[in-house]
Prior knowledge:
Layout: H1 4-11, H2 27-43, E1 47-49, E2 53-56, H3 65-76, E3 81-82, H4 83-90, H5 94-107, E4 114-118, E5 122-126, H6 133-146, H7 154-166, H8 169-172, H9 175-189, H10 193-214
Antiparallel strand pairs: 1-2, 2-3, 4-5
Amino acid sequence: xxxxxxxxxxxxxxxxxxxxxxxxxxxxxxxxxxxxxxxxxxxxxxxxxxxxxxxxxxxxxxxxxxxxxxxxxxxxxxxxxxxxxxxxxxxxxxxxxxxxxxxxxxxxxxxxxxxxxxxxxxxxxxxxxxxxxxxxxxxxxxxxxxxxxxxxxxxxxxxxxxxxxxxxxxxxxxxxxxxxxxxxxxxxxxxxxxxxxxxxxxxxxxxxxxxxxxx
Length: 215
């Protein structure tokens, strides 16, 4: 099974060219990757969340360096902090998260790395998909869930909230399907506390960015 971060990163790549549809430097992508890490720790029963806070359940390392870095920070905190607090703390580590996720997808032979030159000088790194079954499986699962009235599994609600935060449903669904499904997407995305925190953080950062440039 792929991790949340691996699924999100796969959805962010153009299947043929290996170039990002949405840049890893984009705040939506960065926030979703951080949310994916917290979501994974929750499913591994290392942390628990209520409507706002994260609580440490088990500080035992997972043997995943990205997850263990986040787990270490949370375990060192003197008291429980809010989900948004930890998301802001971990935003500084998105390059570390991205590099690890990419390497894992290459190791699993889902992506390959290609180094090309732009104008014969500047190297351009791309990651075309070798095995498209994983990506097709993610997209099919999401389509089937959104276009039906099925009750989602807990893991699916996390993925829906992260995919919605990145705006990927507009690529997965046809324009008509997306228009018809916005209410259901919003309903499912609100079911996960971490997903809600991702969406809220993106709104706050984007609003701050707009205000800064207006000033």
